[in-house]
Specification:
single chain, MetI-like fold, mainly alpha, 15 helices
Length: 303
């Protein structure tokens, strides 16, 4: 065997496994695994949606969880929206999520930009203080006493201000800002631009990916948060997540006035509430998906 061929085979044997061309058996195995994962992921969503569209006969025949409704009906959704409780809670959740996400993004971007400047006084101490909150979180009683002392009980601000900045999101945005070319900042300062103008005109247009990802993180957190609402708000102020918990887990009726008007199985109503609580996030995610991987990797690797 020629020496060059032996060297080529030796080099190929030293290549990592992921650089080798996959065999037909390995490709078939990957396809089977991906198919199983897709089925396991889609099955719960399909079951919840199908059960919410089923009547009492289909639910009884399927022992509570329907895969394909034979007699589809929107009675569960009509029951929910007829009472007005879920509609009001849905509007409150949308407003809390929108306002809370905007406030959190503004605070996170401002703090991250300040901490990304190497000439900031006590910047390292402030950063370590923020990171300290990732390791040690306050308990329920100290948090409740703080909210009470600030006069936020019964106010929607109690759902936003205590969780205004996430230390993880702050680190991701700061790392991204530090990875931007410093020559852009130096050129802007030579032209007389201040920090606020640099942030608005240069940094933010270059940070759409990481801001979309962090905004999605904040939006999901505000949308799904129910524990703070249970502690700080009255029953008539509850967002949709708390209504979902109250009805699905505890079995409390949504509205006694509407229960007798439209007949719908309780399991169908429970699943309909779950669908209503999940759909808004599912509608937002596809628009941000293209930024998701790029924003997370860029913000996490650099710096």
């Amino acid at each position: 065997m020629p020496r060059s061929r032996r060297q080529a085979r030796r080099v190929e044997s030293l290549r990592p496994a992921w650089m080798e061309k996959p065999t037909p058996l390995s490709r078939a195995g990957k396809a089977i695994v991906i198919t199983i994962i897709c089925i396991l992921t889609i099955y719960p969503f399909l079951t919840v949606l199908s059960t919410s569209l089923s009547d009492s006969t289909d639910i009884a025949n399927a022992n509570g969880l329907v895969l394909f409704p034979l007699h589809p009906t929107f009675a569960a959704y009509e029951t929910i929206f007829a009472g007005g409780v879920v509609t009001a809670a849905l509007v409150r959740s949308i407003l809390i999520t929108a306002i809370g996400t905007l406030c959190s993004l503004a605070a996170t971007v401002g703090m991250a930009y300040g901490l990304s400047r190497r000439d900031l006084a006590f910047g390292k101490f402030i950063l370590l203080t923020a990171l300290f909150t990732m390791l040690f979180t306050p308990g329920i009683i100290p948090s409740f006493l703080m909210v009470k002392q600030l006069g936020l009980l019964g106010s929607y601000a109690a759902l936003v201000l205590p969780t205004l900045i996430s230390a993880f999101n702050l680190v991701v945005v700061r790392s991204f800002f530090m990875g931007l070319p410093q020559e852009l900042f130096e050129a802007a300062r030579i032209d007389g631009a201040g920090d606020f103008r640099i942030l608005v005109k240069i940094v933010l247009p270059l940070s759409k990916g990481v801001l979309a990802v962090v905004g999605l993180f904040y939006a999901v957190a505000y949308w799904n948060a129910f524990f703070n609402a249970m502690l700080y708000l009255k029953a008539e102020q509850w967002p949709l997540s708390m209504i979902l918990r109250q009805y699905v887990l505890l079995g409390s009726p949504l509205d006694t006035a509407s229960a007798g008007e439209i007949s719908a199985p309780s399991q169908a109503i429970q699943m309909a509430v779950v669908v209503i609580s999940v759909v808004p996030i599912l509608l937002v995610y596809p628009f941000l998906q293209k930024y998701f991987t790029k924003g997370v990797l860029t913000g996490a690797v650099k710096g």
